[in-house]
Amino acid sequence: MRHTIIVLMVLILIPRCSSEPEQLPVGTLSFIRDSGDVIRTIEVEFAEDEESRASGLMHRRQLSLSEGMLFVFPAPDSLSFWMANTPLPLDIIFVGSDSSIVNIAKRTIPLSREFIRSTDLAQYVVEVRGGFTDRFDIDTTASIKWVKYEE
After folding, report:
1. Mean pLDDT within 125-140
2. Domain segments of the chain: what residues?
3. How, if at all, do strands 122-129 and 67-77 pair?
4. Quick check: 83 and 108 in contact, CB under 8 A?
């Protein structure tokens, strides 16, 4: 009986271990001042479904200042994230349905299970390397604009 359980576990896990990670859609995202000037443009991966939003940037050990991830939710909501399994400090930027920045959680604590919440309804979340928003002077007066590349 014990060997049967072990064999079944191995058969279930082998396909998961050998499969390539899913490639997420990519594009660019710009941070825009209220004057309309572009502050900074980065390359982003789009997390648009439940599975990709759940895994996000987990387990990533590198993220340059020109990379990030855009989480797209179906409708505005009170959103919360955590850093479990994320070894890098991130700036987590909560964005409303009108593309304006609602709030920013700066330099989040890696591997923490503490919830990081939006202070108002948000429909999008941008994750960038910790310190990014301070370095490029991005605050709640800014907004975002993105372009997703055709697949």
Report:
1. 98
2. 22-148
3. antiparallel
4. yes
Strand ranges across the sheet with 38-47: 101-105, 90-95, 122-129, 67-77, 38-47, 26-32, 143-148
Strands 38-47 and 67-77: parallel
Amino acid at 11: L
CATH top-level class of 22-148: mainly beta
Question: What single string gives the DSSP state of each residue in 2-39?
Answer: HHHHHHHHHHHHHHHHHSPPPPPPEEEEEEE-TTS-EE
pLDDT tens, position by position, 89-132? 999 999 999 999 999 999 999 999 999 999 999 999 999 999 99
Distances (CA, A) of 48 to 124, 135, 136, 139: 10, 27, 26, 24
CA 103 – CA 105 distance, rounded (Å): 7
Tell me the CA distances in angstroms from 1 to 4, 6, 7, 11, 149, one per residue in order: 5, 9, 10, 15, 51
